[in-house]
Amino acid sequence: MSNLGEMGEFGFIQYIRDRVNTPESVIKGIGDDCAVLRVGEQQLLISCDISTQDVHFRRGWPTHAIGYKAAAAALSDIAAMGGHAQWMLVSVSVPPVLEPEFLEEVMEGIQDAAGSAGAAIVGGDTTRSRTTLMFDIIVLGLPHQGRCLYRNGARPGDVLAVTGFPGVAAAGLHAVEHGQKAGTLIDRLWYPVPRLEEGRWLTERTAVHAMIDVSDGVVQDAGHIGEESGVGIALQSALIPVDDIMHRYADAAGQNPTTWSLSGGEDFELLVAIEEASFAGIQQEFQARFHLPLTRIGECTGEAGALTVDGAPPVSTGFDHFRDES
Fold this sequence. Notes:
Layout: H1 4-7, H2 9-17, E1 26-28, E2 35-39, E3 42-52, H3 63-80, E4 84-94, H4 100-117, E5 120-128, E6 134-142, E7 159-163, H5 168-177, H6 183-190, H7 196-203, E8 208-213, H8 218-229, E9 232-235, H9 244-253, H10 257-263, E10 270-274, H11 276-290, E11 294-301, E12 307-309
Parallel strand pairs: 4-5, 9-12
Antiparallel strand pairs: 1-2, 2-3, 3-6, 4-6, 7-10, 7-11, 8-10, 9-11
Helix pairs in contact: 3-4, 3-7, 5-6, 5-10
């Protein structure tokens, strides 16, 4: 391959994964939302997330939202493991000509997101860049009741379900970039909610076998569960829940909301594999507890490596940083 565009983001991650050593202190290394390390008799969750100008945000967005969204993305990795976020390190790369007030407002957004999750900012780093802004956020956390949910626990016959309404952030991005007024959708883009409490609740249930957050799109992230678990993934587009506001906006904009629901990223909802026999009860309890839908959107099959939407290979799997130009 001549460049990273041909290899793709996930091909590059696999390239690194194949070449690193995994000492005994590493319970879970590359290949999940967080690394899980053994520190004495404790387990420590660690994840890092980069937010880059013109990839994850635009300079014209509300400054507070830029920081909040960057931190929420990092916190969502802890949610995907069912953990408790505890500490955060924030590194910034910015041009010296940047107004101090801009960076102060970004940091306020990061602080607000961290505070809402119960995490303390404990350090970081600063460096200059020539033109663009970049924020690198590391979150450290602890497992909930000694258990983490990984991507690799799904079993053939499991129900694949998703929290909330995936695709709302993608609809919000469409609205922002086309100058449309869609307040609720745009708020979900700028102020996503990491499902930390929901993730911990799901972790308490042994019938929940695997979990991932929806950062790159339902199809792509469901595929990660399938790859890591050695199962097939069969999604049904008609089952994907579509928020009423998103549906009305899509109709007005001449767009297909199902495309956003399947391939839109950065909603940070949770995608979970749940034992078939237990799903109805868990679904009912979850919805009563959180007033948020937990919707069956497919199943795990015994055909390892297969990924289908409505019985056929997906037209689009979601976002890839090295292949997508948007």
